[in-house]
Amino acid sequence: MSLDAKDKEILGILEKNAKMPLSKIAVMVDLIEKDVELRIKNLEEKGIILQYKTIINWEKADEEKVYAFIEVRVIPERDTGFDAIAKRIYSFPEVHSLYLMAGDYDFAVVVEGRSMKELAYFVAEKLAPLPHIQSTGTHFLLKKYKLDGKIIEEEMSDKRLLMTL
User: Fold this and answer.
1) Where residue 27 sits, what CATH number does that domain have?
2) Is residue 19 assigned to a domain?
3) Global pTM?
4) % of the chain residues with pLDDT over 70
5) Mean local confidence (pLDDT), 35-54
6) Which of 121, 60, 51 is nearest to 111 (CA)?
7) 6 Cβ neighbours under 8 A, 6+ residues apart
8) Are 40 and 87 within one domain?
9) How far apart are CA 86 and CA 100, in angstroms?
10) What range does the domain containing 36 cover?
């Protein structure tokens, strides 16, 4: 499925700001508003636009969320390869994202929970015991600096007083 340049421009604009008004997008890509609306609807129907997303700084909203990145090594299943295993993994509600990787491990799994203990339980009791899983390695996220291309917090300026002798 090949997209034309205008569709790609529209996608680029929406990726940066999904709330951009159709009228402004139309000016930016040199189309009439109705054409932009139809193109976006077509991109949604084709499954190219999957979702419109808001990036939230949960720390500022006083909501405790813990994330972990889990490296998973598996033995692929005959006939279905990695896909059947991936489906079992992404079906868990704790799984935020799942990626097939090349390198030292097969899957990178991003999980979300309310505590490190909850995520450790998920790995030990739900993920690791799955058939075909050889090993897992868990890395807890300590701080986010940039998410989906957006800097979480601008660098704070140094507010210490200058001392001279």
Assistant:
1) 1.10.10
2) yes
3) 0.78
4) 95
5) 94
6) 121
7) 29, 31, 39
8) no
9) 8
10) 5-45
